[in-house]
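Quick one:
INPUT:
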């Protein structure tokens, strides 16, 4: 029954695009971990300017979102790490964040009365050898984290994985292990005593992008959405 209900919902969404010629439906694929951060910064003003537009959101992992875009199931894709995006997608970047190693209070590396550490406080290779809680292998951040372990020639000690980078970060904050996360995620969680060790952006960084199919004929509203994305303040920081 659940599968039938889901299929009916998908069909209704597909038909909605053609049911009212006065309305335009823009279908956005987005990473689950980014939706609650990016969309509120872009959509309110955009929808005020375009009251005739309806938005459909499709959350998923990067490869799923790319397949949806290339297959014509969505009109654009908001994600991170544009350098790894599939061929056939044009990306427009804006903003980004530093990644941090999250050190919980119960770790021997925790420095009391400190929050954001100085990079000189520790050798990152030593921190990367500790037990980690990470998102699973399909997530955008996990691909980057795997590259970081490879860069430092560290065999990762992965204590636990989750489909959600938010869950992984929350578990780390509560002492299950270390993790690698960003300000836009950490700011959503309960404030507990932790240290944040900033990673060198030359080795790992987060860059936001909106992507469209190469050669696609974009509607005026979709062009405006791309411009709204590029103009938004997406440089998240934590202090």
């Amino acid at each position: 029954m659940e599968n039938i209900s889901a299929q009916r919902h998908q069909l209704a969404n597909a038909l909605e695009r053609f049911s009212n010629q006065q309305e335009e439906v823009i279908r956005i694929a987005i990473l689950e971990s980014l939706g609650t951060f990016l969309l509120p910064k872009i959509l309110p003003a955009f929808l005020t300017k375009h009251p005739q537009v309806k938005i459909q959101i499709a959350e998923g992992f990067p490869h799923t979102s790319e397949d949806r875009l290339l297959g014509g199931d969505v009109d654009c894709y908001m994600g991170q790490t544009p350098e790894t995006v599939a061929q056939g997608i044009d990306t427009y970047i804006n903003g980004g964040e530093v990644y941090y190693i999250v050190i919980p209070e119960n770790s021997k590396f925790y420095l009391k009365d400190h929050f954001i550490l100085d990079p000189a406080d520790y050798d990152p290779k030593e921190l990367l050898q500790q037990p980690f809680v990470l998102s699973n292998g399909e997530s955008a951040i996990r691909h980057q984290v795997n590259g970081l372990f490879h860069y430092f020639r560290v065999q990762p000690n992965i204590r636990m994985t989750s489909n959600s980078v938010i869950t992984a970060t929350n578990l780390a904050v509560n002492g299950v292990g270390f993790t690698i996360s960003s300000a836009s995620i950490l700011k959503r969680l309960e404030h507990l005593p932790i240290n944040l060790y900033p990673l060198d952006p030359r080795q790992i960084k987060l860059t936001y992008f909106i992507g469209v199919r190469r050669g696609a004929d974009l509607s005026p509203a979709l062009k405006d959405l791309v411009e709204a994305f590029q103009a938004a303040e997406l440089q998240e920081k934590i202090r």
